[in-house]
């Protein structure tokens, strides 16, 4: 019955009486007009047709067009027919086996191994070991004649036989080959005794065959030793193509299950969460089938004697099962914990096996962790359980500690290293309090590891000077700002800036970032250039103002060449263009392996071009400065190698650069062959970097032949869609082509979980209407996989949320496990987010989701705030029943962090003065308070610290964002130290407040505009916008030149930007002379240009404009830009163009901007129609047998 059903599926497409192709409902419609010679064959279909194959094969060599299809069919008939018998439906396809083998062989080429000669291979295949024991020698010859054509297809391409295709004459030799899979283990053992050259290619060849054999149900004929041999040979498949782990046998006996799980455990770290869950589910099913003769599957299987459904009480999770699944335990459902026999979990925990199994587990859902923790705790009395605190692993994140001794607290702290601090900070602080209950020492603090960052500054202030000095020798600690200030003060005593020596600064090492800029200027070259490691440690946590101060001190008595060679990354990136030009850089050796800023990279790339020393593979971070013009200048003969070099370090490339490289490459390829993409081969496709492939136009994607589907899916699974604009039409085209490849020969309803996993990030782009056509279990799996998507198209979200609720039910009834599994999809809809239950467990589940959310909606923040405040205490909940204005506590304020902005003004008003004082550091770090909240908080500040006019520096630094509630007159009198502005600038200041803050800083720090040096300009941050036009005119041109590259995006009003632009003209010359590097440095200041100045800019500089600056250009200025200038904006900048700016553009300008915003690599405008290209499939296996005669004509 099962075989018949599969054959029906394979023949879903058939010819009707008119000779046309019929397709069944749910299939993606085929375009039978072309590429009829390609198909995706399942092993079961091949085996079911093997009686027909010999007769058909007699015809195949007649046509050179048969190409890869002939190879697939020949291999299917000659090699894999015995590997995978007809009764399995979940094993790798022939296409998979061939493609993976070739992919692994290509790695041998990459390693530089030459292809082994036929003579050398013959000696291996004809080994006496292989022909011993009655094995016929012609079996090894058959294998050799199968292997050599695959090898030659990679290494001996000719004009007659392009790369990736099998010569037709080789197929003639292959057609009669028959190879028994029982022969494979002996072959593997022989290969291992071969030379490295032969071994690499042969191991690549047999690896996918070994996995297909090991994952087939016919493994009962293998001994345990032979099965281990197969699995060890197949391991490279799981490491390089982790999706192969989805092709697991439907049934496997107990002993081989244990062997299989040993292999799967060895590749655990390379699998994603979905793959790990599938392995666990598969292992659980095999265990119940073997041990209880039942099934956990919801749909009965089609065996002659279907297995009965397991009872809910089946105890499958015994000690053998626990040992077998190892780290896959982290994928258990909370309900699985109840499936363990009494006492089993206790023994598993106390023996240390649990701790060992989860040592490589990086995350565990809170619902499972808490269930396991509860089960383990029930094994002991509270005091007894504390003996095992060092065996908790990830469960420690959810352990509630009370009355622990200092030693036990240390034990538990050691287990919290893998926990996210947002979940465990409250626990960590309680434990630290236990550890440091007496006088603290440097050793006690070192024992805390990373947790030392949670020690209150007040306790650090009690350390002796000797202990502080000892403590500072540990460069690995990331201290908080307040801790650094405390330790610096403790170390230097009452020394003023003028009294600090370079040696004093060097002694501070990792807390040097707690020094004021005036002290950092005391560092001299002789102090640090001989100890660059100390300089690296010191600069790690410094802000830009401090880094600039260090450079100012070092630059006085050191050559720029020495500085360029020895400065660590943070300091190097603060070197101004002015000084970089003086550094005498003349070779790639001086710039590679360093991390440069974009502006520095732009200067250096241009410099290397002028010196004719551009080597794209060696440029590394300098690639940021490569222009489209440089890419256009590359010779066609070097172009492919160049774009491959660019793609090796995608982190340094912008969308603009990728778009230019893709357009240049595609144009070159199509000049070489006009129908390049229509007739592209596997190896040609493989040669195009994934990064560039994403920029194919929809037409090119549509034209890709089915023969490259394997390579296409492989590349899409590894592609980073973040490098493609969100509204790029190629996203839809790539998605449709991937689905087309997956559904050749099958309906969407026939796709398996393994198929879906092959989509990789393309799954995130799949329309919900397509998902809904899949089988129920595949829909569920797909949605769980999509919960990891970083981005889902906006238009898909309503239907996707609807599909989620149809599949899993109303969010109001969800369990913790379901929220943790699919929750990110529900968070796409505000109403569905609000509907999630306010259950006690919800806080931990949302905190778990929070860790991986790129953007948190207001609805999510509100939901988290509700459950966090509701969970604060049961007594607080009872009080809320009588009083709706619950006052925040210090502990809750600290826990909520930035979400403290969600308290109502009346709730904040109910806060006691003591709570405010205890939590002022946290409250002061929150931007975005409403005017009502600021009124309340500023009133609290006056109650606690006294009148604004009498507040001291310490109070003002703590208040930070709360100071936004003061009047402009009060702001102007605040004692604000210059070095505190880096954090103060993060608050949402109004433009009208900025001048008052500048006046306060100038007064308190004795600053005047004319005396501002480069360090002060950088340190002022956004408050630089507070200078008046008269003060701007007084600024030092030299200081501005030195500072501007390190100044952040200045969010100044337009009139201030125009004044700063005038300063830039005075400093650097007329805008028509501005370079890419300078424009990158000027950032928002470029928005101060007038229409004539903007129109005079060189077009090449526009891709180096800062994204944030684009909306700041007045519409009339933006409209003055030529199409050539707009053409160089690039996708990211084009996406920032406002509706007001668009309205001022001509139709031609608007077309350019629209095309750029989609990231199109073509210079022509995209088609006006937004309709998706029709999805097509080619005729499948049965149709090909009927049509093959036509193809051979």
UniProtKB/TrEMBL annotation:
- InterPro entries named in the record: Stereocilin-rel
Q: List the GO cellular component terms.
A: cell surface
One GO BP annotation here?
A: cell-matrix adhesion
Start and end residues of each stretch annotated as Disordered: 1-35
Q: Which domain of life is it from?
A: Eukaryota
- Renumbered to this chain, the Polar residues biased-composition regions fall at 7-21
- Keyword Glycoprotein tagged: yes
> What protein is this chain from?
Otoancorin
């Amino acid at each position: 019955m099962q075989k018949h059903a599969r054959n029906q599926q394979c023949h879903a497409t058939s010819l009707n009486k008119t000779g046309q192709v019929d397709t069944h409902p749910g299939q993606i419609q085929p375009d039978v007009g072309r590429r009829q010679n390609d198909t995706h064959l399942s092993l079961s279909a091949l085996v079911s047709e093997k009686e027909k194959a010999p007769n058909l094969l007699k015809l195949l060599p007649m046509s050179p067009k048969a190409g890869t299809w002939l190879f697939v069919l020949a291999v299917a008939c000659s090699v894999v027919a015995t590997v995978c018998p007809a009764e399995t439906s979940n094993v790798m396809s022939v296409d998979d086996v061939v493609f993976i083998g070739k992919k692994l062989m290509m790695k041998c080429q990459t390693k530089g191994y030459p292809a082994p000669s036929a003579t050398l291979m013959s000696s291996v295949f004809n080994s006496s070991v292989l022909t011993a024991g009655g094995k016929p020698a012609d079996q090894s010859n058959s294998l050799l004649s199968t292997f050599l054509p695959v090898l030659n297809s990679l290494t001996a391409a000719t004009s007659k036989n392009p790369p990736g295709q099998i010569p037709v004459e080789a197929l003639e030799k292959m057609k009669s080959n028959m190879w028994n899979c029982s022969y494979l283990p002996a072959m593997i053992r022989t290969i291992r005794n071969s030379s490295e050259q032969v071994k690499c290619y042969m191991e690549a060849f047999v690896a996918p065959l070994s996995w297909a054999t090991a994952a087939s149900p016919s493994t009962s004929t293998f001994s345990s030793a032979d099965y281990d041999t197969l699995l060890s040979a197949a391991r490279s498949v799981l490491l390089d193509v982790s999706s192969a782990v989805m092709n697991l046998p439907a049934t496997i006996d107990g002993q081989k299950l244990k062997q299989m799980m040993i292999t799967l455990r060895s590749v655990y770290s390379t699998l994603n969460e979905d793959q790990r869950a599938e392995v666990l589910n598969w292992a659980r099913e095999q265990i119940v089938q073997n041990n209880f003769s039942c099934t956990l599957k919801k749909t009965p299987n089609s065996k002659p004697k279907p297995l009965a459904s397991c009872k809910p009480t089946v105890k499958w999770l015994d000690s053998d099962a626990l040992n077998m699944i190892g780290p896959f335990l982290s994928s258990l459902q909370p309900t699985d914990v109840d499936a363990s026999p009494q006492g089993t979990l206790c023994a598993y925990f106390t023996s240390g096996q649990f701790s060992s199994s989860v040592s490589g587990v990086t995350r565990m859902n809170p619902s499972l962790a808490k269930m396991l923790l509860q089960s383990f705790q029930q094994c002991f009395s509270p005091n007894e359980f504390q003996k095992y605190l060092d065996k908790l692993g990830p469960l420690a994140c959810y352990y509630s500690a009370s009355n622990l001794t200092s030693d036990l607290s240390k034990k538990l702290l050691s287990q919290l290293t893998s926990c996210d601090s947002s979940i465990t900070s409250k626990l960590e602080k309680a434990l630290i309090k236990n550890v440091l209950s007496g006088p603290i020492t440097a050793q006690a603090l070192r024992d805390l590891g990373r947790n030392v960052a949670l020690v209150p500054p007040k306790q650090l202030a009690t350390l002796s000077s000797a202990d502080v000095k000892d403590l500072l020798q540990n460069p690995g600690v990331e201290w908080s700002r307040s801790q650094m200030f405390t330790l610096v003060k403790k170390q230097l005593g009452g020394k003023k800036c003028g009294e600090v020596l370079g040696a004093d600064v060097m002694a501070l090492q990792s807390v040097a970032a707690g020094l004021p800029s005036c002290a950092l200027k005391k560092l001299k070259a002789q102090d640090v250039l001989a100890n660059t490691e100390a300089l690296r440690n010191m600069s790690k946590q410094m802000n830009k103002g401090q880094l600039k101060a260090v450079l100012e001190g070092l630059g006085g008595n050191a050559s720029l060449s020495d500085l360029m060679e020895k400065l660590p990354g943070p300091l190097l990136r603060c070197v101004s263009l002015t000084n970089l030009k003086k550094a005498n850089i003349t070779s790639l050796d001086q710039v590679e392996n360093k991390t440069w800023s974009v502006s520095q990279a732009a200067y250096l790339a241009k410099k290397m071009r002028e010196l004719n020393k551009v080597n794209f593979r060696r440029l590394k971070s300098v690639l940021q400065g490569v222009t489209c013009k440089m890419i256009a200048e590359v010779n066609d003969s070097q172009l492919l190698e160049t774009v491959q070099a660019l793609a090796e370090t995608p982190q340094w490339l912008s969308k603009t650069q990728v778009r230019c490289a893709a357009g240049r490459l595609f144009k070159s390829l199509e000049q070489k062959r006009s129908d390049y993409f229509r007739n592209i081969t596997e190896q040609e496709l493989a040669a195009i970097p994934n990064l560039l492939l994403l920029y194919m136009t929809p037409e090119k994607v549509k034209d890709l032949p089915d023969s490259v589907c394997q390579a296409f899916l492989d590349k899409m699974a590894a592609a980073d869609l973040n490098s493609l604009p969100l509204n790029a039409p190629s996203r839809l085209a790539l998605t449709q082509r991937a689905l087309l490849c997956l559904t050749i020969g099958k309906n969407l309803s026939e796709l398996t979980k393994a198929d879906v996993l092959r989509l990789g990030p393309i799954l995130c782009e799949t329309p919900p209407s397509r998902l809904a056509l899949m089988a129920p279990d595949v829909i569920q799996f797909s949605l769980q996989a999509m919960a990891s998507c970083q981005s889902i198209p906006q238009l898909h979200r309503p239907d996707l949320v609807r599909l989620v609720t149809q599949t899993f039910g109303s969010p109001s009834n969800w369990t913790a496990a379901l929220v943790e599994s699919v929750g990110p999809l529900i968070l796409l809809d505000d109403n569905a987010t609000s509907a999630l239950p306010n259950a006690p467990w919800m806080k931990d589940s949302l905190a778990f989701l929070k860790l991986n959310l790129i953007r948190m909606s207001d609805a999510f923040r509100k939901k988290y705030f509700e459950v966090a405040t509701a969970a604060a205490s049961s007594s607080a909940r009872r009080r809320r029943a009588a009083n709706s204005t619950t006052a925040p506590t210090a502990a809750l304020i600290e826990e909520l962090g930035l979400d403290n902005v969600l308290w109502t003004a009346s709730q904040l008003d109910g806060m006691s003065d003591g709570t405010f004082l205890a939590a002022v550091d946290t409250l002061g770090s929150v931007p975005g308070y409403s005017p009502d909240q600021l009124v309340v908080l500023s009133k609290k500040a006056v109650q606690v610290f006294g009148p604004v006019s009498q507040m001291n520096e310490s109070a003002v630094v703590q208040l930070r964002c709360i100071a936004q509630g003061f009047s402009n007159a009060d702001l102007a009198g605040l004692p604000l130290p210059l070095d505190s502005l880096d954090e103060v600038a993060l608050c949402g200041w109004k433009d009208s407040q900025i001048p008052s803050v500048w006046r306060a800083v100038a007064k308190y720090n004795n600053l005047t505009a004319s005396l501002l040096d480069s360090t002060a300009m950088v340190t002022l941050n956004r408050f630089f916008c507070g200078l008046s036009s008269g003060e701007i005119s007084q600024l030092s041109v030299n200081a501005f030149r030195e500072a501007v590259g390190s100044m952040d995006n200045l969010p100044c009003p337009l009139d201030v930007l125009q004044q700063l632009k005038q300063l830039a003209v005075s400093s650097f010359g007329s805008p028509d002379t501005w370079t890419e590097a300078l424009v990158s440095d000027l950032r928002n200041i470029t928005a101060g240009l007038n229409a004539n100045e903007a129109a005079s800019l060189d077009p090449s500089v526009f891709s180096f404009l800062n994204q944030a600056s684009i909306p700041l250009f007045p519409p009339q200025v933006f409209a003055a830009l030529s199409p050539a200038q707009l053409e160089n904006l690039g996708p990211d900048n084009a996406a920032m163009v406002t509706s007001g700016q668009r309205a001022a553009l001509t139709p031609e300008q608007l077309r350019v901007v629209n095309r750029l915003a989609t990231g199109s690599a073509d210079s022509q405008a995209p088609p006006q129609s937004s309709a998706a290209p029709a999805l097509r499939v080619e005729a499948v296996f049965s149709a090909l047998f009927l049509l093959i005669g036509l193809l051979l004509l």
